Model the fold of this input.
Amino acid sequence: MAKTKEEREQKRLEAKARAEKRKAAKEAAKQQRELNGDDAEDAAATAAGKLNSNDLRKNLPISKEHNSSLAVVTLPIDALSRVMRYLPAREWGAVSLTCTGLNLTLGGCRVSHISSRLMRRQDEEGKQSTCGSMCLVGGLQLCVSRKEAQEILDRSFLSGGETGRLVSKKMKLSRKKHPNGDADADEYPAYARYVEEATLGYSEMQCSRDALFPTHVQGRFASCSPEHTLLRMGGGGNTTSGSGGSGVASWGVGKRGQLGFGKREDGPEPRLLLSKIGWGIRIVQVAAGGGLVRVAHSLLLTSTGRVLSFGTAQYGALGHGYDAGKQLSDCLRPRYIDALKNDKCICVAAGELHSGVVTIDGDVYSFGEGFCGQLGQGDRRPQLLPKQVTLGGLEDECVANMSMGCRHTLVTTDDGEVYSWGLGRFGVLGRSYTDFTYNNDVGMAVPEGEEGHVVGVAARPPPMQAAEMDNIVDAAADDDGTNDLMAALDALNLTLDDPSDQCYPKVIDSLRGVRCVGVCAGHRHSMVLDEFGGLYTFGSGASGALGHGDLVGQEYPIKVQEFDNMGVRIHQFSAGVDMSMAVDTQGTVYAWGKASEGRLGLGMGRLQTALPREVDVGDSKFKAVDVECGYVHSLIVGLSGCVYQCGGVGVDGQDDGQQDLDIEENQRGLPRLLSGFNIWHRIA
Done:
């Protein structure tokens, strides 16, 4: 209802009176400060020499008047350090933003906070505890003293070179004013968030059961296919919500749109994705799928539990189904999977032409090519849309994480059991299995062209004449596609039903009694990690990829004894194409398998190694937190956020391997630092 002229005038006069009252109060306060100014300065000068670290906050300005009554403001700094170490990075940042007067003091608490994530403590009896670490392998030992923790903090700002993406002008000025390390802690929550994800699995999942990723999930920071690479990095701009690895960069071969830039072009260097993700969206996991048959696709997981996919859509690997033209069109930019919009996901995985997700309830959904039973649906049909895997008792299990290889899939449950399904050739399933009903042309591409295996082509269904295939395609385009496709196959008496237990999940019996916390499915071998840091491998032993000292394949999981002999416990690991890498709990990198062209960072003179060898990046203080293997390249992610690349994927017609002609001869085949790149640095 409109007000009368008199009512509007009355409101205006009341507002004017309130403004004059506030102005008078400010003037009175200003005069009072001027009268007491000299006495206050003398008192401050007298007390300056008596202040210790516990009195530091007494002279700090309080951003809000009510902050002075908060209990945290009144704590001595040593007590404050003990309290703050239990706060996750996000809550640390919230305290810093809410109580800006604490910023200078919080700068002095950073060492205590970060050391609680990086090193184990000893009690009075000399027993070690994990002091803030939730790692199932007993926690990491990435530093041994507060002095080393301070060095790690300092290195994190400079590692990777000048990225131009680090800090605000306010932080730079504060560091100049306080060179002793007590500068404003504005930048610290971003690095702490990165460290927590690397060591604790705390990934700020807004939909997760307990806000934690599986501790040993694949693709936490990086993921490699034989042709392309995805790597998380600090976001910003119009795509993500800030630092701490919230965005994603990609590079490599891009002919199928797997890089996500909207063009079918190769990318020689990491480049940040800047569209189709959304404002304020954090990417928390990446999965690069593909194989040796020139197909590739990518999956991204957001902190809200949504999944994006892009790249080749062959066999429904992207999970979008048919487009308006009844075609499976490649996606050149990230696109949300609408079929999963009502499910909150906590893990994604990508194989050569199939994909999968794990939901917040522990359910598994798979989609894409299924001609080798790798979807776990009890048959060999492709799935154009995500479909839940319910066979083999998996519906009653709570799955923690999953990994997909060329033609097989592995998952671990919260109870520590491992399930496997898909093509069991080479022993990649780690268990016995029954043969397929149809074995014609079922195989996988192999690097060397070994006798009896298909070279350079994907597995395919039973053969049929060209005219029969045309009829099937026409039938598939009539209605919703999938049902008509199956009907056409039935009409030709070519069923994709198969009773083989390769087509549905089955627990690996030989691992019963071993609580497993992580899995990784490579091209034709597999890896499993137990709760004590023991690593098991099985599958093809080509090039020594299993790490047992020979080239013999294994049909059942065998523990890598070399690590036990060295007293090494594994924290992260990765299986690629006939090569493997792992990081122990002290940040040391090991590699074994095919080593030619520097793909493992062991130099150019070594073609293969059947036992784990330590990888030297050329920095004695370097500590790793993650590794990822592809085909001709691999990545090493450092605690400071820097990234080293071993080998390289040939782009724009170049040969695979390191293409930097400026590298000295004695440095060829060794890890190469990605200059100007750091995962946790943000856009300033």
User: Anything to note?
Assistant: Residues 484 and 526 are 36 Å apart (CA to CA).
